[in-house]
Prior knowledge:
Structural class: alpha/beta
Helix content: 25-40%
Number of domains: 1
Distance between the termini: 69 Å
Mean pLDDT: 92
Order of helices and strands: HEEEHEHHEHEHHEHEEEHEEEHEH
Shape: globular
CATH superfamily: Glycosidases
Amino acid sequence: MYRILFKTISLALFIAVLSSCSENKKVPAEKSPVIIAYVGGYRGEVDASRISPEKITHINYAFVNLIDGRATLTNEKTDTINFRTLNALKEVNPDLKILISIGGWTWSGLFSDAVLTAEGRKLFASTSADIVGKYDLDGVDIDWEYPGFGGMEGNIFRPEDKENFTLMFEALRESLDSLEGVTGKKYLLTTAVGGFEKFVEHTEMDKCAPYLDYVNLMTYDYYPEKIARHHTNMYPSQQYECLYSGQYAVESFMRAGVPAEKLVVGISFGSRAFKVKDDATKGLGDTVVAQTRAGGGFTRIKDSLENRKGFVKYWDSTARAPYLFHEENKVFVTYDDEQSVTEKCLYTLENGLAGVMFWEYMSDPKEYLLDAINEAYGRNTTSKE
């Protein structure tokens, strides 16, 4: 009996010691998905009271311009006000990171010239870091639309963009690291990229990736040429010949050498609407006649258009994406909703991606989609009503 008691006590002590060791051992916490919000400062002053900092991890401030090879605050008066009000959101969420996003569709025309030489890259990188340091921000996001093949009509592009795109990030990383040496603060470097194969073909993403913290896939604005299609579908549709999808973008960039843990899937808080041919019966897959402004942001779509005013909501089960069709007016509207956003978030979790980003915050003022993102990621939120 004493031997049994001794063995029992010894076993209990062993378990207690093992438990104590396990508690003291530092086990790396699972990294939470990022939720990156693009916030437009191009309109003027940002009403920061409309932003819920506890629901996001990063703000990419759009946009900073590129003039004479320098990162430039074109709207300096309101930009500087916005930097102060956005930084104040850290009182609610101290972990919130705020980056300047340079370029965008309208201000990408001079990237090619600016980074053509080593001296030009150094100037651009140093002026970018200067803005970050001066306004106590957290990093730089580059939105060059697009290296090697233009973008907006009139944009300058050249074959050398492929290599210079990489060298630009090298220079930016060096400037941000130098700033870190002064402030002791770690700075982020990210980029927004076209969510299609052509972008991959004109860049060296495997060489860019080591300099970057996140690669934000613009898996939206898949504009139709002749056929009405989804503009922000996660998966290919079987309703038409599908050349673009979020899944295809992710796989393309992974094949190009970008690690999964740096890839961020894009979500659209707005919509795209098109007039289709007069004999159209379904919208999706029909012939496009012209683009219209019938859609708007998601709050408007949810509150005013879904199954209202002649618009009928449909769900494409293969693309995992919604759309509206107004049969009388022959108007097709493509957008993200709560279900498609959830699908995208689940995809990032299942495939070990960094998380999601979205364009643009103020397009869904009631935060229906932002709440869907947080719910999918297991974060507690309260919807704005």
